[in-house]
Design a protein that fits this description.
Blueprint (H helix, E strand, L loop, with lengths): L1 H17 L1 E3 L1 H11 L5 H17 L5 E10 L21 E14 L3 H25 L1 H41 L5 H36 L7 E3 L15 H22 L4 E12 L10 E11 L7 H67 L5 H36 L4
Parallel strand pairs: 1-4
Antiparallel strand pairs: 2-3, 3-5, 5-6
């Protein structure tokens, strides 16, 4: 026996190290890190960088190689013969190959404005991902505290089992010596079987909640996993810090940046161009032979009248900003309602827990007296079981209220945006 105890104690650290312990904060972190949508943050940044590089390449010269061969039904001819000259009309079949280069010199900062808009769009899109990931916290809360509740209920049921086994041993001795009727022992055994059934149900429910939690945080959780009971402090700050508010601000900034792009879209564009070519005829239409040629110059393009399109586009953007503003106000109103509801829940469970303490204190005194009466044969096992159940129902209610209070506080912090 002594050797067996030594072996058990030597293996105990291995069992403890194999046990997985998780905190609520770790669950949040794992979900944000492993949830599929989290990968979009880096993907969106890579996409935007590529799009900005494409925009920046508009500053580089454009080279086009063109070639054509044509046959036309008529060509230019002089109506009069010029003395001492031999001018032949151009051939009806003509050939030309050119290399054209265009260099943007000025476009009113349109490229920079579009690159700035791409950056603003990226910030809004990445914040939207942050909002989506933040909503996971409420789902994690529900599953986390479900597991925690079943975990604590299991401890209470095991404690109840110990007391029941102690009374069963005492009753068995009384039955053996004829001091207690066998029905009392059978009643305790039936209650023991019922308790084993409850433990089995709690274990299945805990396993189910663990599986749901494991899917959210992408970790393999089993019955060896223990969740810590978090100490959650209710924040004192009044202003909400939800990521949705930052999203609204970024959306407004994005819309304001788009107005700058709209303004610059109608600025004049100045291009430098060059053309080098070889063909028949060349630039000299009177020389009916293959010749090389070139041309350089500047080109200005400016739409001086757009029928008020720029103005209408800006008005549309302003309307979109008003829509975002109304969405922000609606969110703040709903968020304030949720805060008030969460505060009410916190106050409710705190009051209930105070009563739970008083109830349990009284129930323990009653059970202590009932246990003494059972040991002295003054009452039956049925009466003892009734009081035992009353005590542990009160303890389970207390445990339920403690978990509900912690859940209400965690939800309140999420509603306030305190969990980042």
């Amino acid at each position: 026996m002594k050797r067996l105890l030594i072996i058990i104690f030597s293996l105990a650290p291995l069992f403890l190290s194999a046990q997985q312990v998780l905190t609520l904060e770790e669950c949040y972190s794992l979900a944000e890190k492993n949830y599929p949508i989290a990968k979009q943050t880096a993907l969106l940044e890579a996409k935007t960088n590529s799009e900005i590089k494409v925009l920046e390449k508009e500053r580089l010269p454009k080279l086009d190689l063109n070639a054509q061969a044509t046959y036309q039904s008529d060509v230019i001819e002089f109506p009069l013969q010029i003395p001492n000259s031999n001018i032949e009309p151009p051939n009806k079949d003509q050939y030309r190959a050119t290399l054209d280069a265009n260099q943007l010199i000025y476009n009113g900062g349109n490229i920079s404005a579009n690159a700035k808009l791409k950056t603003a769009e990226l910030a809004a899109q990445q914040q939207q991902i942050a909002v989506n990931l933040y909503t996971l916290k409420s789902r994690i809360n529900q599953n986390y505290f479900n597991v925690l509740l079943f975990q604590e209920q299991e401890k209470l049921l095991l404690s109840k089992m110990e007391q029941l086994e102690a009374r069963l041993k005492e009753t068995s001795v009384g039955v053996k010596y004829g001091a207690i009727l066998p029905a009392s022992e059978q009643l305790l055994k039936a209650e023991q079987l019922k308790l084993e059934q409850q433990l089995s149900q709690v274990n299945f429910d805990r396993e189910k909640a663990l599986k749901n939690l494991s899917l959210l945080i992408f970790q393999n959780l089993d019955n060896t996993t223990t969740l810590t009971n978090p100490e959650i402090l209710v924040p004192v700050e009044n202003e909400s810090q939800r990521p949705e508010l930052e999203l609204f601000n970024l959306q407004e900034m994005q819309l304001e940046t788009s107005k700058e792009v709209i303004s610059k879209s109608n600025y004049p564009k100045l291009l430098g161009f060059a053309q080098a070519g070889y063909g028949n005829p060349g630039l000299n239409m009177l020389d009916n032979s293959f010749q090389d040629f070139y041309m350089v110059g500047l080109k200005l393009n400016w739409n001086i009248f757009d029928w008020g399109k720029i103005k209408e586009k800006k008005q549309a953007v302003d309307i979109s900003k008003e829509i975002v503003s109304t969405e922000k106000k609606t969110f703040l109103l709903n968020n304030e309602i949720q805060q008030k509801e969460a505060e009410s829940d916190i106050n409710k469970y705190e009051v209930m827990l105070k009563k739970d303490e008083e109830i349990i204190g009284l129930r323990e005194q009653v059970l202590q007296a009932t246990t003494s009466q059972l040991q002295n044969g003054a009452i039956t096992s049925s009466e003892y079981i009734t009081e035992l159940n009353n005590l542990y129902e009160a303890k389970i209610d207390q445990q339920l209220h403690e978990v509900q209070l912690a859940l209400a506080k965690a939800n309140y912090r999420i509603i306030k945006g305190s969990f980042k």
